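Example record

The entry below shows one chain as it appears in the dataset: sequence first, then structure tokens.
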Amino acid sequence: IETSFELRFGHAAASFGNMDVYFVPENDAAGPNNLADTLAFCDAGAASEIAEGTYTIVATTAGDINDVIFQSDELAFTAQSTLLVTFFDGDENDLTPIAARGFQPGGSIFAFADSRTQPTTRFIHASADLGPVDIYDDELLTNRVVASQVFGGVSAAVPRDAGTWTATYTPPDDTGVVLLEREVSTIAGARI
């Protein structure tokens, strides 16, 4: 159908038991009317034709709609596409214990962020010419998030609110000189 897409869910998260997966239309809440599948570990659900639109993916412990283990942001799904969304155990690269990945024909793979999780940012100093830097995340240069970072250094993960902000680089302990400014966007559940 020209106004729908094909969707199915898979469960590959060995540390989680059975799960219910809801495919929730925009401005709606997870409930029996939008339960897409109940999956056991290693299950792949049946493919469904879904109307294009904006949806949220919610996974819960099977039978307990209040025990949410994953929730995406609202996402736009386009017609005439095919998607397999599979849940995996999270690892050191994920911010949550469960991760969701989308697989499309042709090999496209992408991650769904868990919207309930605060994003983090790590800073990598990759300019041999810049010298050591302090990094600030506010316009007045009062909130230093990284101190005296040297070339090749990688900061610890810095928790961030979702949104767009400016990273300002200065010489250590000298907010009178701005060496570099960079606009950064963070989204809930993502690590950059």
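Notes for this example: The first strand starts at residue 4 and ends at 12. The chain has no helices and 16 strands.
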